[in-house]
TrEMBL record:
The keyword Cytoplasm is annotated on this UniProt entry: no
InterPro entries assigned to the protein according to its UniProt record, in alphabetical order: RcpC_dom
Highest taxon of the lineage: Bacteria
Regions annotated as coiled coil: none
Signal peptide: 1-26
Species assigned in the record: Aeromicrobium fastidiosum
Assigned keywords, A-Z: Signal
Residue stretches making up the Flp pilus assembly protein RcpC/CpaB domain: 114-204
Protein name per its UniProtKB record: Flp pilus assembly protein RcpC/CpaB domain-containing protein
Length: 224
């Protein structure tokens, strides 16, 4: 009986040592994955943060972590000190990187924008490069550039931006943004078709933006 207890005890000890070795190997694998990669500090949200949140109120709602430089969004902040005197211009969700594009002077941030009567809301997923570098905020007007198999056109202009949700960085290091706009039925159909079957770019527009004179462009127009 005593011999059986010894055997059982040794088996349990070996199992514990095996688990410890596996954990150590996994941690070492994580270290090897980032070997040779430049890691930098970035401030990111740890909870939902509404628009118009001050830098002081971001304490306790954000954390500073190290990420690969390639995973940084444009204008990412490495410290909350860089946000002093500013407020968030968009709502943040857990994992969002805090960047200059998501901060504004308090007087520049408009309160929530509601959908106009007779219109409907539609959300467009766009990455930073196709979103004027992430400079779009609630209350802005945007135009849509749609591309299908080498044909490019500007089918929609003057869309009212209702909400901007800056997406968290995914496992592939890509950062995205969700733009909610007010649209009529026809424009909603055009947008969904472009999102599903083509690629989309948004342009930031103002009251003086010239939207006439465009046409459907092909590669022959670019390089005759």
């Amino acid at each position: 009986m005593k011999k059986q207890f010894i055997i059982i005890g040794m088996a349990a000890l070996l199992a514990v040592l095996g688990i410890a070795a596996l954990i150590a190997y996994a941690n070492d694998a994580d270290d090897r994955a980032f070997e040779g990669t430049e890691m930098v500090d970035v401030v990111r949200a740890t909870t939902e943060v509404p628009a118009r949140t001050t830098a002081a109120d971001l304490v306790g709602k954000t954390e500073t972590v190290k990420v690969p430089r390639a995973a940084l969004v444009p204008g990412a902040l490495s410290s909350l000190d860089d946000a002093q005197g500013l407020v968030t211009s968009v709502a943040l969700v857990p994992g969002d990187q805090l960047s200059t594009a998501k901060l504004s002077e308090p007087d520049d941030v408009k309160a929530g924008t509601t959908v106009p009567k007779g219109m409907q809301e539609l959300t467009i997923p766009v990455d930073g490069a196709r979103l004027v570098g992430g400079a779009v905020k609630s209350g802005d007007r945007v135009g849509v550039i749609a591309n299908f198999s080498g044909q490019t056109a500007n089918p929609i202009n003057g869309l009212l931006v209702l909400k901007v949700d800056s997406g968290a960085v995914g496992s592939d290091g890509a950062a995205g943004t969700l733009i909610t706009v007010a649209v009529n039925t026809l424009d909603a159909e055009k947008l969904v078709n472009t999102i599903e079957f083509g690629t989309i770019w948004l342009t930031l527009q103002n009251d003086d933006t010239e939207t006439g004179g465009g046409k459907t462009i092909t590669s022959k127009d670019v390089a005759p």
